[in-house]
Design a protein that fits this description.
Radius of gyration of chain B: 20 Å
Order of helices and strands of chain B: HHHHH
Distance between the termini of chain C: 57 Å
Oligomer: heterotrimer
Number of strands of chain B: 0
Structural class of chain B: mainly alpha
Order of helices and strands of chain C: HHHHHHH
Number of domains of chain B: 1
Distance between the termini of chain B: 50 Å
Number of helices of chain B: 5
CATH topology of chain B: Helix Hairpins
Number of strands of chain C: 0
Chain lengths: 157, 116, 175
């Protein structure tokens, strides 16, 4: 990618990530939530991949790490649901509700938002990296072949 | 009522792409159009004329809010449905890429001929 | 009200272009346009939550779809791209619209939602869950079981995509 794109991404990728975290954290007060914020968080890493190549993005968040975060998000969400059984029923809001319109309010809802945001962002990045890994190679005689790239080759656009 | 029917027209266009088109990417596009139309239909059913968004802020009067707010339930369901649509589309695209790898084409008639 | 009709008309136009054009890349750009118009429509329908989600998801869908098509040699669909005639399309849409009209007779009129269950959520949402965003409280408290199911579906679809895209597994006879 060109120099302009690289410079703009260098400035804005961090802000995109920060905005995604904000959307997740304030999901119970303002519009947004785990799903939208998670896609934004994944999108900031995709932006890095598109501008700087896979190598840099995978240094920030490796494939195994994104798979782990994906599974971990789903497990935390399930765990929060199961803890409620101790107090009565599935998905019991066991934490104190706190004062409305504050960040630390609404019991387990912000925690669930964080778990979902982690899961969605990591899985989106994992799928994109897997899509970026496969590349068609055309031979002279018209046959096509797929090349599985290793982690340290860059995307050629 | 007309506006609901327009949603179904959109659904029909997506179904046309799924049933009639030969190109795999066109079929994925058709599924995406069907998904959009159904999401829009659900949100339209929950709409209240002259309503407000289902988010309370500090100035909101409680009784006023219950009287004016749009239906939050379809919105919550559609929110998850959109993200699932993203997952399903990536699944379909990865299947398409594997088919392209094996047969070298996105055309489903050629893929049928090449089987075996 | 009128702007909703305009937005839906634009969406239908974009969908027709996306389905009927012969270049795959312009088809994908058109589906992106449909998605962004849908985002504006959600904003008009007082649904800021899903407008945000639709916006970011649409960008992700565009990236994934363009990634799938770019660099392939079949960028233009060759010859007749469909099986049947345009008359069949009209018939198909007519049948769908007919049955939809019959089914929608029991739907509430536009602009007056039923609110049989949601009325309770609106009244007691803030005091029971403490979340000011009622959509969030429905999603993660009143109807959290649904959300758990949908997270499971998302997990399954992503796992399937990763399975299809992984490095070569065991070699079979056909390769």
């Amino acid at each position: 990618m060109g120099e302009i794109v690289r410079n703009i991404v260098r400035i804005f990728a961090g802000f995109t990530l920060l905005f995604g975290v904000y959307i997740v954290a304030y999901g119970h007060i303002t519009p947004g939530g785990g799903f939208a914020g998670g896609v934004l968080i994944g999108g900031s890493f995709i932006l890095l991949t598109l501008a700087y190549g896979k190598k840099l993005a995978l240094q920030k968040l490796s494939r195994s790490m994104s798979s782990t975060l994906d599974s971990l998000g789903a497990l935390i969400f399930l765990f929060l649901a199961l803890v409620g059984i101790a107090g009565g029923y599935f998905f019991l809001n066991f934490l104190p509700l706190g004062k409305p319109f504050h960040l630390f309010s609404a019991g387990i809802i912000p925690l669930c938002n964080i778990a979902i945001g982690m899961k969605v962002g990591a899985s989106l990045f994992a799928v994109f990296i897997a899509l970026a890994m496969v590349r068609v190679v055309k031979h002279e005689d018209g046959t096509t072949d797929y090349l599985e790239e290793t982690d340290d080759t860059e995307i050629k656009q | 009522m007309i506006i609901y029917l327009l949603c179904f027209v959109l659904f029909g266009i997506g179904l046309h792409a799924v049933v009639n088109k030969k190109n795999l990417i066109k079929i994925v596009v058709g599924v995406a159009i069907m998904e959009y139309s159904m999401n829009l239909l659900l949100v339209l059913i929950g709409y209240r004329m002259g309503g407000v968004a289902p988010i309370i802020d500090r100035e909101t009067v409680a009784g006023e809010f219950v009287r004016l707010s749009v239906d939050p339930l379809p919105q919550a369901m559609v929110l998850t449905s959109i993200v699932i649509g993203l997952g399903v589309i990536s699944l379909m695209v990865s299947v398409c890429i594997r088919l392209y790898e094996k047969y070298g084409t996105f055309d489903i008639t050629k893929i049928k001929e090449l089987r075996g | 009200m009128l702007e909703l009709y305009v937005l839906l008309g634009l969406m239908i136009l974009g969908a027709i272009i996306a389905v009927e054009t012969r270049e795959l890349l312009s088809s994908i750009i058109s589906i992106g346009a449909v998605g962004f118009i849908l985002c504006v429509a959600f904003l008009r329908l007082h649904a800021p939550d899903i407008a945000i989600t639709q916006l970011v998801v649409e960008v992700a869908v565009l990236i994934v779809l363009i990634r799938a098509t770019i660099g392939r040699d079949t960028a233009i669909t060759s010859g007749r791209g469909e099986f049947r005639s345009i008359a069949l399309l009209t018939g198909l849409v007519a049948v769908i619209v007919f049955f939809a009209a019959m089914g929608l007779r029991c739907a509430p009129p536009f602009g007056e939602p039923l609110l049989t269950v949601s009325g309770t959520y609106l009244e007691t949402g803030l005091e029971k869950t403490g979340a000011a965003n009622i959509v969030s409280s429905v999603l993660l408290d009143f109807r959290a079981y649904d959300t758990l199911g949908e997270v499971t579906v998302l997990f399954a679809s992503v796992a399937g995509a990763l399975l299809f895209l992984r490095k070569k597994g065991k070699k079979t006879e056909n390769g």
